[in-house]
Amino acid sequence: MRVGLLWFDDAPKKEVSLKVKEAAERYFEKFGRWPNLCYVSPHSFPLEGVHLDGLRLLSSPLVLPDHFWVGEGHHSKEAEKRAPKSQG
Questions:
Q1: What is the pLDDT of residues 18-33, one digit of tens each?
Q2: Region label for 31, one of left (φ > 0), alpha (ψ between -120 and 50) or beta (otherwise)
């Protein structure tokens, strides 16, 4: 990952997909580009290689539970052109 943002959200009733979306939106606000990659804890999301709103989700034991590491993978030229699907 060239650039990344670590997001923490421990809300127990919030879906993982919403947590990832909020992390991606914050990344866009901060860097002006949409991320294409998100690393999550295997405890939070045990599936591998799932795509969610243009982000590839990968589990990593290096990521703590309730943390989401969003950013741009090596092939992110498309991410710079793409705007988020919603900003509201």
A1: 999 999 999 999 999 9
A2: alpha
